[in-house]
Amino acid sequence: MIPAAFEYHRPDSIDDAIKIITEHGDEARVIAGGHSLIPMMKLRMADLSHLVDLQQISELKGIIIEGQSVTIGAMTTQHELIAHEELAKVAPIMTEAALQIADPQVRYMGTIGGNVANGDPGNDMPGLMQLLHASYTLAGPNGTRTVQARDFYEAAYFTAREEEEILTSITFNSPVGGYAYEKQKRKIGDYATAAAGVLITKDGGTCSHASIALTNLADTPIYCEEAVSILTGSDLGAGAIEAATMAAVNASDPGEDNRGPIEFKKHAAKVVIRRALERAIERA
Question: Which residues have C-beta within 8 Å of that of residue 54, sequence separation ≥ 6?
Answer without folding.
Answer: 11, 17, 30, 31, 32, 60, 74, 75, 113, 166
